[in-house]
Every structure is written in structure tokens, then in C-alpha cells.
Amino acid sequence: MLKVENVSKYYGDFLAVDNLSFTVDKGEIFGLLGVNGAGKTTTFRMIMGLIDISSGSITLNGKKIDYDVTDKIGFLTEERSLLTKLTVKEQALFYGTLKGMKKEVILERLDNLLKEFEVSDYKDRKIKELSKGNQQKIQFIMAIINNPELLILDEPFSGLDPINVEQFKKKIIELAANGSMIIFSSHRMEHVELFCKKLVVMVKGKSVIAGNLKEIKESYRKKNIIVKGDINVSNIKKIKGVIDVLETSDEYVIKIEDNSISESVFKEISKCKNITKFMVEEPSLNEIFVSKVGETYDK
Prior knowledge:
Blueprint: E1 2-11, E2 14-24, E3 29-34, H1 40-48, E4 55-60, E5 63-64, H2 67-70, E6 73-76, H3 88-98, H4 103-116, H5 132-144, E7 150-154, H6 162-177, E8 181-185, H7 189-195, E9 198-203, E10 206-212, H8 213-219, E11 223-230, H9 233-237, E12 242-247, E13 252-256, H10 262-269, E14 273-281, H11 285-298
């Protein structure tokens, strides 16, 4: 288990991370979210042992993170961190050696991962000669070449087309199924919803949303009603508690203050013709994120 307990980080007088706590269990994919400057990168660096914490504690399987423990961690940064003048093979040998791996183990694991990601032909190519998407594949391979117990993924799908995103998703789920603890950070909330059962949302260094994603959604009062058919939008907007009515290509999204408003909406919808769909659903994580972060910045 990764345990982050009451961790704070000051840069001089600036408080970058403020009393942050969370845990990531074996085989769990955990979401760490926030806008730029929220404190995510600082948190990642503290977990990696790259910078000291000001107060609190961070442990991996009960041990303070030092150079011995970091050999068990993989980190894919948002920015490219490859040595572009090296070949893929040279990069793997360099990185794997830093992680305490033997040469033959590095090369065997590299061959398997290159084959899995369909880039075996690039083994002896310099990284600077590869496309952005293939560089991202190589960066991901470098992050997992040591078969990490803890894997930190910061915007892992950056620069990838939909087919390659699916490849990454499959591998991330496989790693978790094999016991890796994974911290997943992305601005694409639909990716977070796909992977993460637990999450923390940070704003200005503080946790503003934390817990089980299902419970977070259930506790958020605002809901959406999805309707397909011929409705009277102006009449629905007049119902007390209806926030807005949005029209998509083939249906309407009625945003309501809470679930109690759905009955009034249903009564009005019942007067309309050709209704083939009426469904009350939880808001998306993106809606909750925008609402909560917006409230925090307005204070």
C-alpha cells in the first residue's frame, strides 16, 4: 500500500501541498486530479523521493521511500523525458540499470513490450527519429520495464490516436490486475471514470473532493435527465429546479437541482409525443470537477 499521510510542502512561504492524505492499495487504479498548478506534480515528486516533504509522511508497503524503494516505482511524466539521441535499446538499458535490473532481464522485457506495442522495428532507432505517438509508447515502456509495484501515470494518453489509447488502457488494466498500485492523472475525465474507483481532486494544494467515485456521484445533488423525443423546451425550463435544457444531436439533457425535481419533469414530459427515452442519471465526473473547482476558485 502507498500511504500519503497529512503531507504538506512549502517552497519558501508558498504552500504548494496542504495536508494531503490518501492511500492506494495493491491492484488499485487511483485518480489524482486537479487543474494546472494544483500541486499534482509536487505530490508526484514527493512520492518519488525527488523532493523532501515539509511535514507528514509517505510510505510504500510501510517503508519510507528511499533509493531502494524507488527501484520499485515507475513514472510516466506529462513532459517527454527520453534521451532523444539514444536508441530505444540504449534508453532501456540506461533506465533499467538505474532501476537495478540485470542486462539480460532488461533486454528480454524490452523485446516483449516492443512486440506487445507493435514497435519492435524501432529497437535500434534513435528516439528523436520516432513520431510523437511512438515516443509516447517508448516512454510508457520505460516506465513499466521494471514491472513496478507503484506506477505513476501523468497524462499517459498524450499524443496518442484512439487505437493506441486502447492499447494503453488494456496494459494499464493488466498491470493493476497483476497487483500494481497505479496513480492515474489526466485532464480527460472520461478516462478517469473508466479506470478509477477512488480519487482525490486538488485545488491550490488542497483536497476538495476525495473518496469513492460512485459515492461522490451519488452525494452530488445535481442530476441529469436524458430524454429522446419531441419535448416543449420552454415549458420544461419554467419548472422550478430545472437548471438548463441542452440539445444534442438526437436527445435532450435536462439538468436539475436534485432528484426530487424529476417527478415534475416527468409529468411535463408525459404530455409530449414520441418520447422513446426518459432516464435520470448521475452527473459526469467532468461536471462535478468543473462545479467544485469553480466554487473553490470563486472563494
